[in-house]
Amino acid sequence: MKILLFGATGSIGSVVAAELVARGHEVTGVTRSGPTGGEAGLRLVAGDVTDPGQVAELAAGKDLVASAVGPRVGQEDDREVLIGATEGLIEGLRRSGVKRLVVLGGAGGLLTAPGVRVVDSPHFPELWKANALAQIEALARYREVDDLDWTYISPAQLIEPGERTGRYRTGGDHLLTDPDGRSRISIADYAIAFADRIERGDALRTRISVAY
Q: What are the φ and ψ backbone dihedral angles of 199, each rounded to 5 degrees?
């Protein structure tokens, strides 16, 4: 499969890229700065995900576009980056004719009780609140789109480097927790879930969540 991946050198995107390459996919990674090394088998190019024209040009001839774009914590405006990427991807794919889009989402909008989101907790880190709210807005925008086959994949509440076990559970709009009440997943296992969803081609026009 020919895949265009935005955010391919980020902490999560780089692992997603490596997983896809290892599975034999032809991956073109897009970064704001252009080629900077990268994984073997990964072609890196420069591009701006907020520019629909560039998205359309880069997506031409691809089977699928994926995005692991995220703002640099404390260094960029979360909403500007995430909503800019959302609008750029939607319009860019429409121009390109590519229908399939898989997006790294956030966990802040997952429900912990009816009408109660993760971000609503008084213990939610202030540092991540703007990011969570922007991700919620981005998902709402995707849910207005009925002419693209998008999938929004939320990780567990805690996603961090860790073991690649190949094990995970899939849910929907509710926060997944383990028997001890923890919601977590390693970046490596999130990348497996992300790649699995790309290959299965299902869960269209919906948000799914993954966790242990």
A: -70, -35
Q: Label residue 41 by pLDDT band (50, 70, 90).
A: confident
pTM: 0.95
Contacts of 89 (CB under 8 A, 6+ apart): 6, 49, 55, 65, 67, 101, 103
The length of the chain in residues reads 212
Instruction: Please give the single-letter amino acid code of residue 210.
Output: V
Tell me, what amino acid is at 1? M
Each residue's pLDDT tens digit, 152-177: 999 999 999 999 999 999 999 999 99
Q: Do 101 and 65 contact (CB within 8 A), yes or no?
A: yes
CATH superfamily of 2-211: NAD(P)-binding Rossmann-like Domain (3.40.50.720)
Amino acid code (one letter) for 70: G
Which residues, other chains included, contact 134 with Cβ-Cβ below 8 Å and sequence gap of 6+? 78, 79, 81, 82, 83, 106
What residue spans define the domains of the chain? 2-211
Residues facing 185 on adjacent strands: 159
